């Protein structure tokens, strides 16, 4: 086992605090204080207390505040170098975030249920525990911004706005799914919501995301369209050892592309621990190696993620180039529903279960009086009904028809290409199917 | 060369020396084949090389202008980039180096570095970037220095470019062209000489094109760039420098050839020879040799490997009853195997002889010149195979 790392000052232009995560902590004493990332701009809450839950520390100090919001404002003024105005979440934003978190969790739990009942099949990779990353980033995006993901993409699609019904139908393989049942769990695409996949190969989505970012830059600079859209690429810790990851980090910086690389470091690639697979486990360090800021953030805390996300997205929109954000997170379930999940230390699982993003955020909302118990219960009920409805809808939808098997292979109906006049050749009445003697 | 064993059948019929030249041509576009036909009809004039024929062609067709394949590709790229601002070219050495094989010469100066992009050596990365850009409506042309290097990006070509339209149920078509030289150059060794036509053509979702002449190159590249689907465009390094006549029609900026249609380079009635890319030239030469011996060969230039023009091939086989497929790729699971299967499935009763497949030797490409010459199909191999198909084969001892 390599020695624990000292908290390093990272090379980055952004003013983020950069904690490192001690390796030993995870394996020897999972109950020790998880991280030193300041919450909401305040550093006073986290001293070296042996508290598994960093939230309670802050909340105790905030308990004296009259309104949670103004307390943050007070802190903001005292820690001027630190926080940005985006840490302030309004009640509206808070409820929205909470709803999104709960939607992700309920949906994935329902997926598990459906899988064990045989309604869903194949590979299903669930996102339980990582919701803070998805909500933290995607809720800040506009409709025209793009999201590219991996096979663990249900929640990314949901956060981006793809209706739960469409995603559930897709998982059931019905024709009403977002990809008409042709994609499946691992291939969620939505042109309308700019969800560009859903890729099974790890690392495959990163160049795609880089390409989408490239097109945004191209449109802005060459086609003179007012385009300041950004692309967010989500991928895991295992991907960060893959060649395509490094190739794209390089090209993104080289061409200053509006992209944010988000690493959902849940420490495990199926059964391969990140620490066994990686020579330099701090993934955020790989950003500066290529010339972009590398940031580490507590991925179990939606507000911290949101804070970092806002900064990174604003950077990209301004044309300042890419950012690499490493989110320390954890998946509560196995790699997929077929994974028995025997290799992970139960103590580690317990430790992270205690840092459940939804519970923590709920607590935050309640204790800062941004919402009350009734409102949150109402949201949970609403989401439950939504998910139930989506299952019913998917159940009642039809399977794809036989004709659908051969559709959409090509965009061009018969594969003869485009004629000189710009329309499909097969639509030209003078174009015959006979021998071409051109 | 996947030679089947020699057959010692006696002649079953004497081939008809009079070849039926159907009204093929007044267009200079078919000048080349016209000349060949005329020569065949005259009972085989003096053996001439291609170049001689080309010179003769020039004398015959007034509108014929000569253009190398390289220039044809360059002009196609130039015109398409001028016509549509969404088209851009990306690859190694395409910009300042003017193209590794000078195909993109002059484009950087004309369109600037934002549209002619020199990439780092990251095939997987920039192929994927092309696909991502295509998702968002741009029209990239991704150049691979050779298709051998494209193996590093094959995941992006097949899995993302090829399958995206299907996986997304039509939401995200990928209008991209992957182009570059394919097949064996001279003496470049095993890792630079493979032909990938068979690999890419087995994948649904991709279109695979392989031109031979300059007109083919121009027409097909333009069609590929305009096409809404991913196209794998297989050029050939050894054909880049060859000159072919181009008609005025081909020089028109809107000229494009249909995809999925083969071209009958030369009509015949005794045996059908299919080929693509450089092998078309060899097949034409073989047809000349065969003509002297009284075998009239119909040469089909496939042009489009996927979708394969099965209709043309089958129609031709039904006319001639014999088939020889020629390709530069490895024999197992090659293009010839697919054509053979197609013909057996659709025109079985019309076949008078087993289908002959000519392909690269079933070995990685050797370096030594003489070994390389043995590995790559040559004109003599095609001639021998055609004769075998016509039951006119000469016993092995006599050819030693």
Automatic annotation (TrEMBL), chain A:
Keywords: Coiled coil, Oxidoreductase, Pyruvate, Thiamine pyrophosphate. Residues 25-57 are annotated as: Disordered. The keyword Cytoplasm does not apply. It is an enzyme of class 1 (oxidoreductase). Tetramer of 2 alpha and 2 beta subunits. Its EC number is 1.2.4.1. This is Pyruvate dehydrogenase E1 component subunit alpha. The pyruvate dehydrogenase complex catalyzes the overall conversion of pyruvate to acetyl-CoA and CO(2). It contains multiple copies of three enzymatic components: pyruvate dehydrogenase (E1), dihydrolipoamide acetyltransferase (E2) and lipoamide dehydrogenase (E3). InterPro entries: DH_E1 (IPR001017), PDH_E1_Alpha_Subunit (IPR050642), Pyrv_DH_E1_asu_subgrp-y (IPR017597), THDP-binding (IPR029061). CDD domains: TPP_E1_PDC_ADC_BCADC. Residues 369-396 form a coiled coil. Residues 33-45 have a biased composition (Polar residues). Residues 101-398 form the Dehydrogenase E1 component domain. It catalyses: N(6)-[(R)-lipoyl]-L-lysyl-[protein] + pyruvate + H(+) = N(6)-[(R)-S(8)-acetyldihydrolipoyl]-L-lysyl-[protein] + CO2. PANTHER family: PYRUVATE DEHYDROGENASE E1 COMPONENT SUBUNIT ALPHA, PYRUVATE DEHYDROGENASE E1 COMPONENT, ALPHA SUBUNIT BACTERIAL AND ORGANELLAR. The lineage of its organism: Eukaryota, Viridiplantae, Streptophyta, Embryophyta, Tracheophyta. Its cofactor is thiamine diphosphate. Pfam families: E1_dh. GO terms for biological process: pyruvate decarboxylation to acetyl-CoA. GO terms for molecular function: pyruvate dehydrogenase (acetyl-transferring) activity.
Automatic annotation (TrEMBL), chain B:
It comes from Nepenthes gracilis. This is Pyruvate dehydrogenase E1 component subunit beta. Its EC number is 1.2.4.1. PANTHER family: DEHYDROGENASE RELATED, PYRUVATE DEHYDROGENASE E1 COMPONENT SUBUNIT BETA-1, MITOCHONDRIAL. NCBIfam families: PRK09212.1, PRK11892.1. It catalyses: N(6)-[(R)-lipoyl]-L-lysyl-[protein] + pyruvate + H(+) = N(6)-[(R)-S(8)-acetyldihydrolipoyl]-L-lysyl-[protein] + CO2. The pyruvate dehydrogenase complex catalyzes the overall conversion of pyruvate to acetyl-CoA and CO2. Its main location: mitochondrion. GO terms for cellular component: mitochondrial matrix. The keyword Mitochondrion applies. One of its GO terms (molecular function) is pyruvate dehydrogenase (acetyl-transferring) activity. GO terms for biological process: pyruvate decarboxylation to acetyl-CoA. Residues 67-242 form the Transketolase-like pyrimidine-binding domain. It is found in: Mitochondrion matrix. Keywords: Metal-binding, Mitochondrion, Oxidoreductase, Potassium, Pyruvate, Thiamine pyrophosphate, Transit peptide. Tetramer of 2 alpha and 2 beta subunits. Its cofactor is thiamine diphosphate. InterPro entries: PDHB_mito-type, THDP-binding, Transketo_C/PFOR_II, Transketolase-like_Pyr-bd, Transketolase_C.
